[in-house]
Amino acid sequence: MELILVLSWLFVAGRLICYRRNGARYRFWVSLGAYFLMTGAFSRAVLVAVDNQPAHWSEAVVAMGLAALAWRSRGNVCLPAREVVMSIRDVVIGAIDPAMTLLPDRMDSAAAVCIMLAICGQEADFRHRWQVIDVRRPEVRGPARGLWQFERGGGVRGALTHPASREHAHRVCAIRGVEPVAAAVWPALADDDVLAAAFARLLMWTDAGRLPALGDVEGAWQMYLRTWRPGAWTRGTPAQRAGLRRKWAGYYGQALREVS
Q1: What HEC string does 38-66 produce?
Q2: Over the stretch 150-160, which tens digit does the pLDDT of each residue have?
Q3: Distance from C-alpha of 85 to C-alpha of 90, rounded to nearest angstrom
Q4: I need a surface site. Which of 117, 127, 162, 215 has the fewest CB within 10 A?
C-alpha cells in the first residue's frame, strides 16, 4: 500500500513539474494552486517513504485518481474542469442569453439562437474552448479559441472590422473588459463564453444572406459554411464532407428542440 501511495504522489508531482503551457494563457491563481498541489504531493511521498508514516487505502485511492487525472491532462490542472461537456441548456443560459443582452434586440431570435447552438456543437461539441488537434493530446492546441472556435485572423478579425459588426464588437469588448483588437480578443474567447457567444452572433450578422428561418437546416448549413469557412469541409473528401453534413443535422436537430 505504501509503495502504491508513494509512486502515485511522485507521479502527480512529477507530471505537474513537467507541464509546459505551449501557448496557453498564464493564470496566477491556477499556477499557485498547481504549485501547492505539486509540493504537497511530493512532501507526502517523502513522509511515507522516509518517515514510514502509515498509509490508508482511502488515501491511496485518492492519490491514484489524481495520478490518472495528471496523466490524462499531461499536468494541466485546468483541463479536467474545462473539458466537461456542457448541455445545450448550459450554453444558452451561461453564454448566449447574457451575450444577447449586449447586442441590439434585432439580433436576438429563436432562429439565430438555433444556428448558434448548432455551430457550437459542430465546432466544439459544447465543451472545447480551444481547437483540439489530437484527442490523445488534449493540451496541444490548434489556432481556434472559444466555444465557437474563432481564429485570430479569421472570425475574430472579421467581427472586429466588418462594417456591419465593428461598432457592436467594440462595445461588447468594452463591457467585457477586453481591448478591441484581435490579439486581445482571441485568447480571451477561451475564458469568456459570453464574449465568444457575442462574437459568434456578430459573425453571423456579417453574412450578406438573409438569416435562415427556424427549421431550415440546409439554409443554416450554407450560412455556417459561408461565415465560418471550416477547413475540414474545404479540405475534406466526399466521404468526410458527408460525415460533417450528417453531424450538422444531428446538432441542428438538438438545437431546434431546445429553442422550439
Answers
A1: HHHHHHHHHHHHHCCCCCCHHHHHHHHHH
A2: 999 999 999 99
A3: 10
A4: 215
Residues 76-135 have pLDDT tens digits of 655 554 444 568 898 999 999 999 999 999 999 999 999 999 999 999 999 888 887 766
Cα→Cα distances 19→70, 125, 252, Å:
10, 26, 38
Q: Provide the residue type at 140 as one letter.
A: V
Among residues 152, 47, 134, 208, which one has the least CA distance to residue 143? 152
Per the DSSP assignment, residues forming a β-bridge with 141 are 132
Asked if 189 and 131 count as a contact pair (C-beta separation under 8 A), the reply is no
- Residue 22: the pLDDT is 45
Confidence of residue 71 (pLDDT cuts 50, 70, 90): low
How many angstroms separate the CA atoms of 123 and 246, rounded? 14
Provide Rg for the chain, Cα atoms. 22
**Residue 192 · residue 129 · CB < 8 Å:** no
Place of cell 448550459: 90
| Other beta carbons less than 10 A from residue 15's beta carbon | 21
